[in-house]
Amino acid sequence: MTTTTEPAAETGRDFIRDIIQADLASGKYQEIVTRFPPEPNGYLHIGHAKSIALNFGIAQEFPGHCNLRFDDTNPAKEEQEYIDSIQADVSWLGYQWAGEPLYASDYFDQLYDWAEGLIRSGLAYVDDQSQDEIRLNRGTLTEPGKNSPFRDRPAAENLDLFRRMKAGEFPNGARVLRARIDMAAGNINLRDPVLYRILHAHHPRTGTKWSIYPSYDYAHGQSDAIEGITHSICTLEFEDHRPLYDWFIEKLPVPARPRQYEFARLNLTYTVLSKRVLTQLVRDGHVAGWDDPRMPTIAGLKRRGVPPAAIREFVRRIGVAKANSVVDVGMLEFCIREELNRTALRRMAVLKPLKVVIENYPEGQIEEIEAINHPDNPAAGTRRIAFGRELYIEQEDFMEHPPKKFFRLSPGNEVRLRYAYFIKCTGVVKNAAGEVSELRCTYDPETRGGNAPDGRKVKATMHWLPAARSRTAEIRIYNQLFAKPNPDAGNFAADLNPQSLEIFRDARVEPAIAEANSTDPMQFERQGYFVRDKDSTPHHLVLNRTIGLRDTFAKQVGKA
Ligand code: ATP
Ligand code: MG
User: Fold this and answer.
1) 336-360: per-residue pLDDT in tens?
2) 414 in the same domain as 367
3) What is the CB < 6 Å shell around ligand 1?
4) Annotated catalytic residue 180
């Protein structure tokens, strides 16, 4: 697999849209019907966003519609929580399905009737072999499979057994219904695949009505046919299943003949997009839940402060191809920064405060300093920040014994406080442990607004906050959840990044941030983009860093 670091050369066009355009032009279809078919066994992730944008996007661009259909054929793993979250996430991404959400379980009766039809035609049989026997007898890529001893059961006996399976007479795993195709087929999917298995499980929608459930392979294509899906778009791993889906469509009296098209799934560096692994990350407590801001889930990205427009733009840029590849996560970050740079209002926050006392500033005096909300958008206006004798700066912005290239604050050195004044460090106060606990500075009253009338320059401009008129906040900084560009999905715990979350509990922010009850994104100058987290209470503000400011990826690829 190759790693993609550059946006697709041509965006907005792809082979699937070309096919659709041709099908409309030839008059094969007047309307295009697509669907997004998640299994409700987990939360949606950024990979699903690619499929969502493709299916719903096509329905927006061409005449037609897109269904949201839950492929809810395995009650052992499916939950209402997932059904709810999937709907919320699709809507949040900005897409609308046609009518009500649909469910494969709505078609259970029809699927069952069709299965009886296959039995009557001698195209399906009840197999009493155990799961292990079925697997052993399936053969390998180089060896054909072995026929089941039950393969030639008379139709009447099959029908009777199948009905009793449905009636709940047999325990889980006792029997299955299989298609009677070809145990020697080169494509293993055609070696008498399982159509129904016995499962005494409560289904979120059909309750205890069914003791047997259709396999995904049996349900999927027929559900598409029932819904009149014209272009059944799925990921490449289903390419080998297409001959089986076509077999069902040919043998069954279905109302339509959907055609399946496969595209490459999204893979991202530093990211695992397997629902099995994501489920385990949550269950084993490696993260705080499905919406942990380090998760690649839509809910996690949302909580982290990623705008839906950034995800849509990312998906547009990566395009749709037929060859598997790995996309550099930097491309996603680039799209997030680009969107937030445009929308986020500028604020100041100090992650690790160091107190500064301006010795020549009058005690008790406060003045209001005007600060710009967005440098590219004058309509965003200004705000006022209180400047006084006691301030906070970032600990990192001071060094008592600076190396040569350190231009920020150090004893004797002059710097600019953003929007305010030039200050110079005149003294250092240390605690019992010998650490710098406070700085003594002087300011130049002539430099109000941040410029010296005599034209003298400083090499650094630093953010700051007033000590009295700022608020405490907890700031959470997220880094990659995995330490390796290609984490091992088989042994993912070993590849987790131990530094994926850093918490700054004594950060300071502008008071307006604490008061506003907003989920709008903010840029903290020099720090990155931030958003209020849902853990906030009226007395405890929690902010997530969505992403830092540094734009290494943009440097690589230019501002294309
Ligand atoms: P699993 O089937 O193992 O539970 P899944 O990720 O395939 O996991 P589904 O709920 O079946 O989950 O996925 C719904 C749709 O999203 C499918 O059509 C699938 O092809 C598509 N999809 C899933 N993962 C990706 C991905 N990484 N990139 C693009 N599309 C994806
Ligand atoms: Mg799937």
Assistant:
1) 999 999 999 999 999 999 999 999 9
2) yes
3) 37-39, 41, 47-48, 50-51, 234-235, 265-266, 273, 275
4) no
Where do the DSSP E strands lie in 351-410? 353-358, 366-372, 382-388, 390-394
**Which has the closest alpha carbon to 447: 401, 415, 480, 494?**
415
Q: Which of 35, 39, 197, 317 is catalytic?
A: 39
- The whole-angstrom separation of Cα 508 and Cα 479 is 21
Q: How many domains does the chain have?
A: 3
Question: Could you say which of 50, 175, 178, 275 is catalytic?
Answer: 275
Q: Looking at 453, 469, 485, which one is the last position of a domain? A: 469
Q: Where are the alpha helices (DSSP H) in 306-418?
A: 308-318, 329-343
What CATH number is associated with residue 497? 1.10.1160.10
| Residue whose CA lies nearest to ligand 1 atom number 3 | 275
Cα dist. 466→147, 386, 451 in Å?
80, 6, 20
- What would the two tokens of residue 441 be? 């500075």
Instruction: Tell me, yes or no, whether 21 lies in a domain.
Output: no
501/456 same-domain check: no
Q: Do both 256 and 384 map to the same domain?
A: no
Has residue 137 been placed in a domain?
yes
Is 39 among the catalytic positions?
yes
C-alpha–C-alpha distance, residues 179 and 48, integer Å: 31
H-run or E-run covering 507: strand 501-509
Condensed to tens digits (0 to 9), the pLDDT of residues 270-286 reads 999 999 999 999 999 99
Q: Which domain holds residue 463?
A: 348-469
Distance 38 CA to ligand 2 centre (A): 7
Entry pTM: 0.93
Indicate the average pLDDT of the chain: 94
- Residue that has been written with the tokens 């709505």 in this structure: 106
Task: Looking at the CA of residue 41, tell me the nearest atom of ligand 1.
Answer: 4
Whether 232 and 302 share a structural domain = no
> Ligand nearest 273 Cα, by number?
1
My answer on whether 403 and 551 are in the same domain is no
> Same structural domain for residues 240 and 313?
no
